[in-house]
Amino acid sequence: MSVLDGAKAAALLFVAAVIQVSVLNSVTVIGGTPDLLLITLCAVALLRGSIFGAVGGFFAGLIVDTATLETMGVTALLLTLAGYWIGRYGETTGRGRHAPVLSVGVVTILYAFGALLVRYLLGQGGSPRVVLLDALPPSLLFNLLLAIPVFLFCRWVLSLGHDSQPVREVRLIE
Question: For the segment 62-76, what is each residue's pLDDT rounded down to a tens digit?
């Protein structure tokens, strides 16, 4: 990967973080909010791997934590873990057509549980019923609806200037 790839991934995640904090955090439809940053992170991690996913998740989470003035590092920690594991999924088995939707669905659910757990451990209360039963289903629906368009856009942006073919299989080196 080149410096240009890192710059394009960083720009995608920065723009997604700014849009998430400035616009989408205030949009609530049916009790849920779409998480453009999480979807963009999934797309970047699937396309570029676990290292890009982890580093991108950390810095995007740091931007969100700084912009929202919440507890520093909570979002960065959760997005780092999400980016790393989605990147590992993309490096190993996530090369099919279903990978973006599956990874966004799984990471949306795990992110909600992780955020609830970390906030509980820090002593910042939150109702599990509100987070998991009221807000999670509509947020999951919004994220799944946005998964394919965001993934296609990220794939287009990250492939600008490249003529390489995507990896079709993983081989073990002995």
Answer: 999 999 888 888 999
